[in-house]
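Title: Prediction job returns without error message
Component: structure pipeline
Severity: low
Priority: P3
Assignee: unassigned

Description:
Job completed but the reporter wants confirmation the result is attached to the right record. Sequence as submitted:
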Amino acid sequence: MKTLRVATLNIWNRFGPWPERLAAIRAGVAALAPDILGLQEVLKLDAGEGDGLDQAAAIADGYGYQVAYARAEGERWGNAVLSRWPIGRSHAFDLPRGGTDEKRTLLFVEIAAPFGPVPFFVTHLNWKFDEGHVRELQMREIASRIDSLATSGAFPAILVGDFNAEADADEIRFLRGLTSLGDARRVYFQDAFALAGDGTAGFTFAGRNPFAAPLREPDRRVDYVFVRGRDERSRGLPLDARVCFDEAVDGTFPSDHFGVIATLRAE
């Protein structure tokens, strides 16, 4: 049986001690060796902007990954994909703002994996606790985009990111096929950690992380690896999943978030 390793991490822009955090993130990438890695809050400065930092390129440097990147117009940070295999078509879609000033996007790439094309999506939803109604609009848009882009018979679409919502929130329950949102058609995505986790709570934003602790927010699971299901050939089936990027490297944590890595059945 062939497998596929997929991971996600919100890299927290350039906050905190970036050089030390970059080293910690790169150490995690080297140890985990994901085939595909989705990143959020990724800064990419245009020529002439500051020092021209390209965070996705810095993380990928020397590891053999291809990189795709997109951000909303007028924003300095966005989403990125690092892929061990060639990236074909890619496109970014603006997500509904719901009357807020946040500009969020969905990045789509098609990856030419050895076992066939893999439709891969990475996103980052509105962050405030009381903006679940906005995240619901965004989730409906994401489901619609995936439905239009994921070809029938192809490898099941993979969706990763920082959703800023816990598993019992309606926006996540909708994605898992457990509730409806307005008149949107119900969908079903497999939550890799819920199905194949290691038995822990799976918190990805937690007080034990010194970069998250000052906010005094409750520990919670808000970062996910989802796979559109169910595939008749069991492609994309989550085999195991765990929290990652969750330990300090030389005294520094990689980000204010922890990540998630999942092993999926490829064939």
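Comment from assignee: result matches the submitted record. The chain has a mean pLDDT of 96.
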